[in-house]
Structures are given as C-alpha cells and as structure tokens.
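Complex 252.
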Amino acid sequence: MGEIQLTLVQIDNYGPWTVTPRPRRETELQTLQAELFAELERQFGAREGLIFPTRFDNMLAITNGVSMDEHRKIQRAVNKKFPVTVSMGVGTASTPYEAQMNATLALQRAGGSRSAERRGMLVGSTVKRPDDDWVQIAHVDVNHSALITDSEPIYDTHVLLQKTYLALMSALTRRKALVFYAGGDNFMVLSNGLDPRELSDVFSEVKREVGFGLKAGVGGAQTAGLAANLASEGLHEIRNGVAKGPIVCKTA
Ligand SMILES: Nc1nc2c(ncn2[C@@H]2O[C@H](COP(=O)(O)OP(=O)(O)OP(=O)(O)O)[C@@H](O)[C@H]2O)c(=O)[nH]1
Ligand SMILES: [Mg+2]
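Predicted structure with magnesium ion bound:
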C-alpha cells in the first residue's frame, strides 16, 4: 500500500513573540499569518505539494515527492523573509491521520512550540521509495449552497458551513482521513485508504446531521498537486452533468 507524506509547519516560539515586548496589534498578526501561509503555498505548490492553513501558527502540508533538501530550501527562504522562523516535522504512513501523527511526534521530540531554543528545526523522514508515494484527495462540495448564500444572512451560512466542516471532521477522523476547509462551500479530504462506498457513508452521516447533500471528485496520484487536479476535474464533471452520481474517482 502507498504512503502519504505530511509535513507539520510550526512557527517557532510564536506565543511569546506575539506579546514581546508588548501584545502586537492583531492586524499585524493576521497579515503575518496570511502572508506566511501564502508564501508556503507558493513554495510547496511549486514542488507539487499542497499546504492547508489549519490554525495558521501550525499548518499541514502534503509533501509527497518533496525531499528533506527541498524542505530545507523552503525553510531557509521563509525564515529569511519573515520576522518569525518555522520548524518542520515530516511523517509518512498509509493513512493521513497516522502520517500527521508521525510528523507531529517528530517535531514534538525536537522541542516545544514555546521553546526559545528550538529554531528552524527540520526533523522526521520522507517516503523511502518513490514508488510508494501515494496521495488520494477528495474535493468535496456542498450541493446548491448558492440558494442559502443568496437568501440567508451571511453569518448563518457561515455557521452552517462550519457545522458541515465539523460533521465531516468527526466522521472522517474515525476513518483515519483528514479534512480541511478550502473556502466557499469546498472541503479537501485527504482520503488515502478510503473507498467510494465509505465516502458515501460519510456523506450520508453529514446529510443526516446538517442537512446538506455533498458531492466529490476523488483523485489518486503520486503527488498532491496531481491528485488535487484530478479531484477537481472529477468534481467539474459532476457539476456540469458529464458524470452521473455524487462521487467520481480518477487515478493517474
Ligand atoms: N476553494 C474553492 N472554492 C470554490 C471552488 N468552486 C467554487 N468555490 C466556491 O464555492 C462557492 C459556491 O460555488 P458552487 O459550489 O459552484 O455553488 P452551488 O450553489 O453550491 O452549486 P452546486 O455545487 O453546483 O450545487 C463559490 O462562490 C466559490 O466561493 C473551488 O474549486 N475551490
Ligand atoms: Mg456547491
């Protein structure tokens, strides 16, 4: 079975930095977080990776095919450009949940998030044999969300989408898959090991809980970039009626 490779990117000693010498303005922190995320997305994206903002001070990237040397280059570029530095932990496994756990454990062993000694660490390990690289991504979309967007107050729509996010998270974590909100009514599911029937069960659970119907294109490939493209193509085929049914799978 193939392995997914995930990288935890964590800002070093960020908590203390935000209040040194006194609490920094929230606009400054928000701008820093958004620009750091954008820079990392550019850097990993250029190497066929894909990073999610997660909680902004801790971000998770799919990095199959990105070597430790390439990670180091990204880290140096980022650490030169920003007033904060980042450390990275790399982990692999057959399921996304276990891969993020391995990435986290590697980084936690290197030092705490509030340690002044841990700066720009790069730890963990990548997929050993290139043939073992495997990423499966489901690009999930809410059916007819525009009906709500165009009739309800925006905050109510936002709450409904976040409830959908939470329902997806809880159904998927039980199946060792991870989900990230991608904006609008879109979610990206790291779904290695999950077959279409299980994904369909997850959609039924969410529908019962929140009321929204879901559809998804699922892509499988050796890199995140390729898998995400295939997933988005599958979703496009459902939207424009080329494909029947709520789930379309495509493999490189
Ligand atoms: N991140 C991301 N956001 C998207 C994408 N496609 C659409 N969106 C966002 O999602 C919103 C809703 O778009 P749609 O899903 O096409 O609208 P809908 O009413 O739900 O239509 P159907 O899904 O076809 O039933 C858009 O306004 C965009 O903000 C995408 O591929 N990626
Ligand atoms: Mg939609």
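Residues 141-142, 145, 185 surround magnesium ion (ligand 2) (CB under 6 Å).
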